[in-house]
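Changelog excerpt

This revision adds worked examples to the README so contributors can see how folded entries look when concatenated. The first example is reproduced verbatim below.
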Amino acid sequence: MVGSAIVRKLESEGFNNPILRTRKELDLLDQTAVKQFYIADKPEYIFVAAARVGGIHANNTYRAQFIYENLQIQNNIIHYAHEFGVRKLLFLGSSCIYPRNAP
C-alpha cells in the first residue's frame, strides 16, 4: 500500500534505517504507547499512512467508530511529533474517508 511504497522509495534514495512498526508492535490509538515510541526512537521524520479502514461495507457500517479512531491516531501522532520536535511530518489520508459524492 502507500506506506510500503514510501519505504521502498526512501530505501532507493539511500535511507536505509527506517523506523517501522506494525499495528501489533505499536497501537497508535494508545496515547501512552505513542509517547513511549517517540521517547525511545526519537524519529526526525514521520510519514503517516496508518489508519482504521475497511471496505465500502465496513466504512458505511462503522462510520462514527472509524472517524473517532482515525482522529485519535492523528491526534496522538501529531501531538507528540510537535512535543518531541520532529523535523517534518507527512500525514496521508485515504480516499475512503470522503463521501462517495464529495465535491
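The second example, added in the same revision:
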Amino acid sequence: MKFSFQKWLKSLHYAISGISYAASQQNFSLMILLGIGVIILGGILKISATEWLILILTIGIVLSLEVLNTVWEKTLDFLSDDISENIGHIKDMVAGAVLIACLVAIIIGLIIFLPKLI
C-alpha cells in the first residue's frame, strides 16, 4: 500500500476533531486540567526522566480511557433510546474502568511526589 500524505492529513484532522469533541466533555476537561497540574508539579519538583515517562504514560492512559468511555456512552445512546438494565451496566463498567485508571494514577502520583514533598 502506497503512503498518501493527503490521506494521513485527513486522518489527523479527524483525530484532532475527536479530541476536540472529547475536550468539550466535563470529565475530559477536568482530566486535562489535572494532567497539566501534575506536569507543572513535576517540573517544579524536578522529577527524574523515568518518573516523567511514568507520569506521561499514566496521563495518556487516563485520557484515552475517558475518550473511550465517551465513545461507549454515545454509541449506546445512538443504538437505543431506552435505558435498559444491560446498557446501564455497560456504561457503569466503562466508567468503572476510568475510575480504576484514575485511582491507579493517584497512587502513582503519591509514590512519585510524596517523598519529594515531605
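Reviewer comment on example two: The domain at 5-117 is CATH 1.10.287.3610 (Helix Hairpins). The chain has a mean pLDDT of 95.
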